[in-house]
Every structure is written in C-alpha cells, then in structure tokens.
Amino acid sequence: MRLGIVCYPTVGGSGAVAAELGKQMASRGHEVHVISYRLPFRFGDFQQNICFHEVDVSSYPLFEHPPHDLALAAKMAEAVREHGIELFHVHYAIPHAIAGIIAQQMLGEGAPRMVTTLHGTDITIVGQDHSFFEITRFGIERSDGVTAVSEFLRRMTVEEFEIARPIDVIPNFVDLEQYTVERPDRSAFAEPGQRVLLHVSNFRPVKRVLDTVRIFEKVTHETDAILLMVGEGPERSSAQALARRLGVLDRIRFLGTRREIAQIAGMADVFLLPSELESFGLSALEAMACGIPVVGSDAGGLPEVVRHAESGYLLPVGDVEGMAERTVEILKDDERRREMGEAARHRVESLFDAERVVSQYEAVYDRVLGL
Ligand code: GMT
C-alpha cells in the first residue's frame, strides 16, 4: 500500500503515534510518505520505504499568517500525483482532515481515501473555542474512516459533535522490542538507594506539571528520592520556580526533550502523570512497557491504560496528597512495586503491543479501501 501520513512534527503524542505507525507500516513493506512542515521528531533515522515531503510555507508581505493549510493541501495533492498514494492517514482533525478534503477535491475522481485519527486535544480544543466546532465536525463527517485513541475520546466526540458515523477505537501502542524491562544504569542521576520518579510531557497546562512537583516534594518527606522531568513547554519555568520555592530544585533533573524515552523510563521506580485530562496517555503506556507503575489522574482515557491498584494508582485530578501517599506506598514496598511493574508490563503485552495495534490500523485501511 502507498500511504500518505500527515501529522504535526512537534513533540507530542499525536506526532509520536503517527511516526511510530509510519515506521511499523514501512517495516511491513508498505510505502510510507510523510507530509509535514518539518520532519516529525520520532522519524529521526533513515528507514527504507519512508519518504518525507516537506510542506513549504512561504511567507509574503501580504500574509500576516502564511496559509499553511493550503500549502499542506497542495503538497498532499502533489505527493499523490508523483507517488500514487492510495490512502491518506491524517493525525489530528484540525487542520489535517480539512487539508485532506481539499486535496481530495483537487485530485477529483480516483483521489486517495482518507482516515482521520483523533488524539484528544483536537476535540477538547473545541470546548475552549467554539469557532472550530463546525469545521471539526465537517472534517470528521467527511473522512472515509475515523479512529479515536480511546473509548473515552470516541464517546466524547460522538456526544460533543452529535456524530452518527462509526468511529473505531484504536489505542496507542509500543514496540516491545524497544521498550524492555531491563534496568539501565542510573548512577548518573541517582545515588545508590535513592528512588527515582519520572514525568514525561510537553509541559502544557493540561499536564499539571506543578502538581508533579508538589507530589514529589511530599514524597521527599518520606523517602530519599529524585525526580526526572523530561520534556519542554510553557510550564517548565513555573515548575522550576515552584521547585525552588519548595526547596527541592536540587533533587529535580530537568532533562529537556529527549528521544531515548525507552532508556530513561527504565530508570524510574514510579511514573507520575497527574494531568487534568488525557485522552489516552502515551507516556504512561511507555513507562508501563518498561515495567514501571504509574500514579496519575483518574481522568479521560487514562483508566483504559492504567488499571487502578493493579498497574498503578489513579486518583481524582488535583489530589496531590493522595498521589504522594500512593507513590510513597509503592516506593517503600519493593515487593508491591515489582508486582505492579509486572502487571503493567503484562497489560501492555496483552493489549497495546505494536504488532497487535498496527494490524488494527491495517484492518481499517483495508475496509476504507474496500479490500
Ligand atoms: O499530550 C499532548 O498534549 C499532546 C497530544 C497530541 O495530540 O499530540 O497528545 C494527545 O494524543 C496522544 C496520542 O494519541 C495521547 O496519548 C494523549 O493522551 C493526548 N493528550 C491529551 O489528551 C492531553
């Protein structure tokens, strides 16, 4: 199959899923064309069967905002003419599904069909800015296939947009050969006997990174621990300022954006994700794949990933005290931590393994193409 993948190249879950899916499809022998304004962050190394098409968003004095969406549609149509792409798979409804519809119209009869994957913030943003309502609904209705990354997101989309069409739920996934339960050497970060907590995100307000710092501060009253903070984003400096105020800055390592999550996750004892909302929670899944229990919020699709009291603990959003208590409980009981870590890995193996999930996407592609 010749597949055109459209996604945001910036660091975030939707770009990560799009890139990992593209790599998996390429290794299954499909021809993958990635269309974006920059090479998406997880497509770092050269891989056979993957070709990148850069959207050229030229500026012109007349345009205060260069028309990215039109440039994307034009590039999608061009890639089809040059490479015979049979199917578009766009990640994120706005504006990718709309650009795909324009490209289909430009190409006319025989244009590729289009699958749209909803990742969450593309749907929840509408709650904040109603002007996107009609156009998001239009993109969902006009796609030839739609997938959502959790049952929570499917239900929310159907209710919010009064959508009657079917939406397939296909969860995020991990490559279990890459994410292993091997414990890498962590002496560069932690002293012997010290516990290691980990948070990975794009530090947007929805992630409640300040709660992560507050949880950690409470944990340090009970146990000798450090916190690894991986990622970049608008709340990073507030998180640093809060850590300084709470007197724990010297115990937190801000590592910035890192590609080697598989190695870093294995160093942790507990993964923290106290988000306001997660339609899925890919970073939690990646930690679980490394056998790391998760303490986070009982919000959105996260309960579909983490089983409360089995592979971690999920508490109400903002319950910093409760999350700290549960984290300490895990850190102080090695046997419990091992059990939870094993349960986490087992859950990923049985439900979220790349082999299994990528086949679900292939089945949707086949259906949409009428194969
Ligand atoms: O987490 C973010 O803010 C980025 C966002 C994105 O679209 O790139 O992530 C969303 O998609 C991920 C992949 O499907 C999910 O695992 C995340 O839960 C989801 N983020 C939110 O719902 C906040």
Strand order of the largest sheet: 3-2-1-4-5-6-7
Give me the secondary-structure category: alpha/beta
- The overall pLDDT, averaged over residues, is 94
CATH topology of the largest domain: Rossmann fold
Estimate the strand proportion.
15-25%
Main sheet makeup: 7 strands, parallel
Q: Tell me, what is the CATH class of the largest domain?
A: Alpha Beta
Order of helices and strands: EHEEHEHEHHEHEEHEHEHEHEHEHHH
By CATH, the architecture of the largest domain is named: 3-Layer(aba) Sandwich
Radius of gyration: 21 Å
Total strand count, please? 13
What oligomeric state do the depicted chains represent?
Answer: single chain
| Domain module tally | 2
Number of helices: 14
Hetero groups bound? ligand GMT
Helix proportion range: 40-55%
In whole angstroms, the N-to-C terminal distance is 11 Å
Overall, the morphology is globular
Report the uncertain regions.
none
CATH superfamily of the largest domain: Glycogen Phosphorylase B
